[in-house]
Design brief:
single chain, 7-stranded antiparallel sheet
Length: 113
């Protein structure tokens, strides 16, 4: 099964599962794209997030698919977030071998910034 099909299936299934678990939905807000590059210009990360005001406070939360790359362009991390909560993750070492994500320095914070 291709990566795009797997991600699409996950994105269709997970929202209903999380709502059933009582996670609040912030889906009234539009997803915005965020990306960054290493100083050399190579892509470092890309993802989507929600922002807005809730209960009088401004927030930015990761939502949807987030990818982080090594400096050489190999994929380091792929995570799926729902309202700032990491619900699925995969990680790879510099050689492309699947590894445990705790070995990487990927921020686990619910708040994006």
């Amino acid at each position: 099964m291709s990566k795009i099909i797997r991600i699409t299936i996950i994105l269709l299934i997970i929202p209903g599962f999380l709502l059933a678990k009582g996670v609040p939905s912030l889906s009234k807000n539009k997803l915005k794209t965020c990306s960054g590059n290493y100083k050399s210009g190579e892509k470092e990360f890309k993802g989507t997030y929600l922002d807005g005001y809730e209960n009088g406070e401004y927030f930015k939360l990761r939502a949807g698919v987030w990818n982080f790359w090594y400096l050489d362009g190999n994929l380091k991390f792929e995570g799926i977030y729902k309202n700032g909560i990491l619900v699925s993750k995969k990680c790879w070492d510099l050689n492309g071998k699947s590894i445990h994500c705790d070995l990487l320095n990927i921020p686990k914070s619910v708040n994006l910034f």
